[in-house]
């Protein structure tokens, strides 16, 4: 029945069906038999597929006869339409399509939708809920969305889709009118002909309003990204978030994407979240993307491990109005340009400008970027001058800042710390600088989440004053610290000095991570005592000790 596109009858007992483009003509016993068969076909299709089922065109002579058949079918359909069933009749469509694909009906699938989805009024169809099915059994599930107006989100993430299932997705995007969000993360998509059909279907359906698109962790390569770019450029409805992380997009694909977003009439105002992490974009790949970013109203930009230069990106942000809207920036695992000797201070100028002007920023990740201290001072200088910013998560781990640098920078810009609620300075070789660092952190009284792990040297011998400095942040009720990570610091039995700080009154610490410290029995005895007395802790992680 789904292959029938046209029904014609130009004589009392004549019937012609157009099936997959082929015309099948037949002579029946009477006009009554013809009319009953046509009505039955309409009832069967529209009774099981209440949405988008009207794809069959009719040409019945005379016109009065066609009207009579339609009225007869509608009379029968009224009761069926009143009892569509839960979730927009999804199970009805599923059963109908199982017959179409010649697959057995899985009653556990029907129960999941009728009971669980219906009970929670869940409008996200998650294929992971049906991961126990054989790959082929997913076909009617996906196809049912062609005829459904209940679900608004399709989540296929981490479910490997067969080529047949991918092909069926193109039909969904061609017919569906209610989906606003789709996640195809790690589903096995490639930049091939099937993916081209999927993208073409989405672009060609003017009634489909996809606002959130996740294609991450698929080997789309530049060819697939170019297909996406063509869609984004002509999209008639705004896309709010776009995730293309780890799609093997190189500079070539990024250039096509950036140009398409620049040419789009909607993207500059509508796109709020852009994720391109874990793609080999390189400095050249950021050029056109940067052009779009500078004229956009993005709130989230993630370029982790893309080979871009952190200072180039921040310079782009500083010179545009996006500094007033951006809330989340992830530039971790990228590098800084290497200026000539005597020009390092130039690095800090755009950084200072950005952090002086941004008012909405809540998350900045510059981990593993190996920036010089001048760059870091620029961040703190900008934060110190900013009167509006607050509650910032600042992640600076793995930057080999070294001793005798960070402490001085923090003391010179104490007001900057008051803008920060979470600070990660782990794995920065701060062994000889921790005492002034801890003194500065203790005085700011706004940092609730602190990571210091990997800064205590590699020999396991830590100066007692350093341990006491860390303990003083915990013991001071004015500091207000709630989360502390000292993971993988190999402090050994010296951890006891820090743990004893938890015996003080009015300690605020709730979460402590001391994994990988080889504290031995001596440390365990102190921890046991702490857990007997302390009333604030609710989580302690202590593996590898």
Which descriptors apply to this entry?
545 residues; four-stranded mixed sheet; 42% helix; alpha/beta
Explain what the structure shows:
The structure is a single chain. This protein has 20 helices and 19 strands. By secondary structure, the protein is an alpha/beta fold. A 15-stranded parallel sheet has the order 5-6-7-8-9-10-11-12-13-14-15-16-17-18-19, with no helix packed on it. Helix 14 links the parallel strand 13 (363-365) and strand 14. The protein is elongated, with a radius of gyration of 31 Å.
Derived from helix and strand composition plus strand pairing, the structural class reads alpha/beta
Provide the helix percentage: 40-55%
Mean pLDDT: 91
Unreliable runs, pLDDT <50, ≥5 residues? none
Work out the radius of gyration: 31 Å
In short:
It contains 20 helices and 19 strands. It is of the alpha/beta class. The strands form 2 sheets. The protein has a 15-stranded parallel beta sheet, with no helix packed on it. A 4-stranded mixed beta sheet has the order 3-2-1-4.
How would the blueprint of this fold be written?
Blueprint: E1 4-9, E2 14-19, E3 22-27, H1 31-48, E4 57-60, H2 63-82, H3 86-100, H4 107-120, E5 124-126, H5 139-143, E6 153-155, H6 163-175, E7 181-183, H7 193-204, E8 212-214, H8 221-234, E9 241-243, H9 251-263, H10 267-270, E10 273-275, H11 282-294, E11 300-302, H12 310-318, E12 328-330, H13 345-357, E13 363-365, H14 373-385, E14 392-395, H15 406-412, H16 414-417, E15 420-424, H17 434-444, E16 449-451, H18 464-475, E17 483-485, H19 495-499, E18 511-513, H20 520-533, E19 539-541
Parallel strand pairs: 1-4, 5-6, 6-7, 7-8, 8-9, 9-10, 10-11, 11-12, 12-13, 13-14, 14-15, 15-16, 16-17, 17-18, 18-19
Antiparallel strand pairs: 1-2, 2-3
């Amino acid at each position: 029945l789904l292959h029938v596109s046209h029904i014609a009858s130009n004589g009392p007992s004549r019937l012609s069906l157009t099936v997959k483009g082929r015309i099948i003509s037949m002579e029946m016993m009477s006009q009554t038999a013809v009319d009953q068969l046509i009505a039955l076909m309409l009832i069967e299709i529209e009774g099981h597929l209440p949405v988008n089922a009207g794809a069959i065109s009719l040409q019945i002579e005379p016109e009065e006869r066609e009207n009579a058949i339609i009225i007869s079918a509608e009379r029968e359909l009224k009761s069926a339409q009143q009892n569509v069933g839960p979730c927009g009749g999804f199970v009805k469509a599923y059963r109908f399509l199982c017959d179409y694909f010649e697959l057995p009906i899985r009653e556990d699938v029907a129960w999941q939708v009728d009971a669980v989805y219906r009970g929670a009024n869940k409008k996200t169809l998650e294929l992971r809920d049906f991961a126990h099915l054989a790959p082929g059994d997913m076909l009617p599930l996906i196809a049912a969305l062609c005829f459904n107006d209940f679900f608004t989100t399709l989540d296929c993430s981490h479910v490997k889709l067969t080529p047949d299932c991918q092909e069926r997705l193109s039909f969904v995007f061609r017919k569906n009118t209610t989906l606003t969000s789709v996640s195809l993360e790690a589903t096995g998509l490639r930049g091939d002909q099937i993916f081209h059909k999927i993208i073409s279907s989405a672009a060609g359906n003017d009634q489909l309003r996809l606002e959130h698109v996740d294609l991450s962790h698929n080997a789309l390569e530049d060819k697939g990204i170019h297909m996406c770019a063509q869609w984004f450029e002509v999209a008639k409805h705004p896309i709010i978030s776009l995730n293309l992380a780890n799609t093997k997009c190189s500079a070539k694909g990024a250039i096509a994407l950036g140009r398409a977003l620049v040419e789009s009439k909607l993207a500059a105002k509508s796109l709020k979240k852009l994720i391109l992490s874990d793609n080999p974009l390189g400095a050249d790949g950021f050029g056109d993307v940067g052009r779009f970013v500078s004229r956009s109203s993005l709130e989230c930009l993630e370029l982790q491990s893309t080979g871009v230069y952190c200072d180039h990106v921040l310079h782009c942000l500083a010179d545009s109005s996006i500094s007033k809207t951006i809330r989340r920036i992830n530039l971790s695992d990228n590098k800084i340009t290497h200026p000539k000797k005597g020009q390092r201070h130039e690095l800090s100028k755009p950084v200072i400008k950005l952090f002086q002007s941004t008012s909405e920023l809540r998350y900045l990740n510059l981990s593993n970027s190996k920036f010089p201290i001048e760059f870091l001072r620029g961040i703190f200088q900008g934060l110190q001058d900013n009167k509006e910013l607050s509650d910032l998560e600042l992640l600076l781990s793995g930057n080999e800042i070294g001793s005798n640098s960070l402490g001085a920078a923090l003391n010179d810009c104490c007001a900057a710390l008051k803008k920060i609620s979470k600070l990660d300075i782990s794995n920065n070789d701060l062994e000889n600088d921790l005492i002034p660092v801890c003194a500065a952190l203790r005085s700011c009284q706004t940092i609730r989440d602190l990571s210091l792990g990997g800064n205590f040297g590699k020999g396991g011998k830590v100066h007692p004053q350093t341990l006491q400095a860390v303990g003083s942040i915990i013991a001071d009720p004015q500091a207000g610290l709630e989360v502390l990570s000292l993971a993988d610091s190999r402090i050994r039995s010296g951890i006891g000095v820090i743990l004893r700080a938890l015996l003080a009154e009015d300690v605020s610490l709730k979460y402590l991570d001391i994994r990988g410290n080889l504290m031995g029995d001596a440390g365990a005895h102190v921890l046991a005592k702490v857990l007997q007395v302390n009333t604030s802790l609710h989580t302690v992680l202590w593996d590898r000790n």
